[in-house]
């Protein structure tokens, strides 16, 4: 029996973004050699925090499988990982979704193409739960012919991530089935308090002098009144009617109760989205302070380390851009759980030989 060790699995991360999945895979013992993404803004955070992994700026739709095979050559085992962007199930109108569907789903199909060209030992994909309802998912599964495949829809809080984020997570292996499933963590899920209460207090519109990512958006006078009238876990229905938005005064505005909401200290956060820096965009109000969460708080709720660097020192912070990059990231701890599962799987399959 050959003992599996850290680095036995060499990986390339597709749609790598700022490196959430890569960072977790590395923490879990996988050798990630490269991340590929079309968005050049991801280069600095990806390489700064995940060296010696390199960032390759390229469209996955036209990236050749032969180039990926070269990156992973001479490895005992190989892994192709990724989270294809999931815009088809964002908050766009239904008509917009129909217009965008074809181009968006091409990214999942491109992932499937690369699996067939590279034929790595292992594959992992993370995506929104709704992807299972789309024909492209069946096409993706067909690309995994010859693999043992496990997939399920997980609540990230069950893996020790301080969010109620639900995601479809797929693991596939050429080696077999033994140990190929993510195990929920034991114990109570981490809370918002566990994760961000250590950060300095901050007023809306201000930035922490020691950490430029700990920056809170300004609030209008009206929104300042609204957040002061909000309680953790409550809704805008708790406000004096004079504070309610016009759309919420109509019968059609009775839905979306979680907008303009505060998080709760003693529970996991809601799903961190690309708009998490805005108080009116969801339950993104700080539990105590009269502001929305900061970019650093959002990143920590995505389980990025507190010192993860997203911009060069002295570089201007663009809140909407970084919010998008952080919200689109795979939680680091999910990547670590995936890595640990694959290493355990290899160990068990080795042991069975």
The order of strands across the largest sheet is 3-2-1-4-5-7-6
**Poorly predicted tracts of residues:** 91-100
CATH topology of the largest domain: Rossmann fold
How would a textbook summarize the main sheet? Answer: 7 strands, mixed
Radius of gyration (CA) equals 21 Å
CATH top level class name of the largest domain: Alpha Beta
What secondary-structure arrangement, pairings included, does this model have?
Blueprint: E1 9-14, H1 20-27, E2 31-37, H2 43-50, E3 54-57, H3 65-71, E4 77-82, H4 94-118, E5 122-127, H5 135-142, E6 148-155, E7 166-173, H6 192-196, E8 207-208, E9 211-215, H7 221-228, H8 295-301, H9 319-328, H10 332-352
Parallel strand pairs: 1-2, 1-4, 2-3, 4-5
Antiparallel strand pairs: 5-7, 6-7, 8-9
3D structure, described in words:
The protein is an alpha/beta fold. Helix 1 packs across helix 10 (332-352), helix 3 packs across helix 4 (94-118) and helix 4 packs parallel to helix 5. The strands form 2 sheets. The chain has a 7-stranded mixed β-sheet with strand order 3-2-1-4-5-7-6, with helices on one face. It is elongated and about 65 Å long. Helices cover 30% and strands 15% of the residues. It has helices spanning 20-27, 43-50, 65-71, 94-118, 135-142, 192-196, 221-228, 295-301, 319-328, 332-352, and strands at residues 9-14, 31-37, 54-57, 77-82, 122-127, 148-155, 166-173, 207-208, 211-215. The N and C termini lie close together (7 Å). The model is unreliable at 91-100 (pLDDT under 50). It folds into 2 domains: 9-186 and 331-352, Vaccinia Virus protein VP39 (Rossmann fold), CATH 3.40.50; 192-328, Alpha-Beta Complex (DNA Methylase, Chain A, domain 2).
